[in-house]
């Protein structure tokens, strides 16, 4: 009986570990999809990386739910942005929840005329995310932007 119990525990641990690459890949893809959608004026894609009731916290502002996040994107029409994402670290808390920290370098210009000459980077910070498994797949439940460096532009 004891050997069966040990075998069952090992099987469950192996099954749990088998999900880790999938969770890491899914959460990493959310980070990349957010940046790409934001940089390419895709308000639907931008909002849809979030869970239905997802929350985005940005410099003292809170956007709750996909509709509010979608509107935030629409309100920034006319800007050109580039989000350079790096150092994506996924910490799996359970098969349905993970925490993600990623570094972001952002440049924003108030024009769409390319090429754009800018004085430098607008922000360099981190995104702190809580990602959850939903019926739609993995989504960001909560994202908070944390300024690390600010620049005088």
Task: Describe, in short, the structure shown.
By secondary structure, this protein is of the alpha+beta class. It is 35% helix and 44% strand. It is built from 3 helices and 6 strands, in the order H-H-E-E-H-E-E-E-E.
Describe this structure in words.
- The chain has helices at 2-39, 43-48, 66-75; strands at 50-58, 61-64, 80-94, 97-109, 123-134, 137-150.
- By secondary structure, it is of the alpha+beta class.
- It has one domain (2-150): Nuclear Transport Factor 2, Chain: A (Roll), CATH 3.10.450.
- Strands 2-1-6-5-4-3 form a 6-stranded mixed sheet.
- The longest helix has 38 residues, at 2-39.
- The model has no long low-confidence stretch (mean pLDDT 88).
């Amino acid at each position: 009986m004891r050997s069966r119990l040990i075998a069952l525990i090992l099987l469950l641990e192996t099954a749990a570990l088998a999900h880790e690459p999938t969770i890491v890949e899914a959460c990493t893809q959310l980070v990349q999809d957010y940046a790409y959608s934001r940089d390419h004026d895709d308000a639907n894609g931008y909002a849809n990386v979030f869970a239905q009731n997802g929350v985005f916290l940005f410099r003292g502002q809170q956007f709750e739910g996909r509709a509010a996040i979608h509107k935030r994107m629409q309100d920034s029409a006319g800007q050109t942005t580039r989000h350079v994402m790096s150092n994506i670290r996924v910490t799996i808390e359970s098969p349905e929840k993970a925490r993600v920290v990623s570094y972001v370098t952002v440049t924003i210009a108030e024009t769409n005329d390319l090429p754009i000459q800018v004085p430098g980077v607008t922000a360099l910070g981190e995104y702190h995310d809580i990602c959850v498994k939903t019926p739609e797949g993995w989504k960001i439940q909560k994202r908070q932007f944390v300024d690390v460096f600010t620049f005088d532009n």
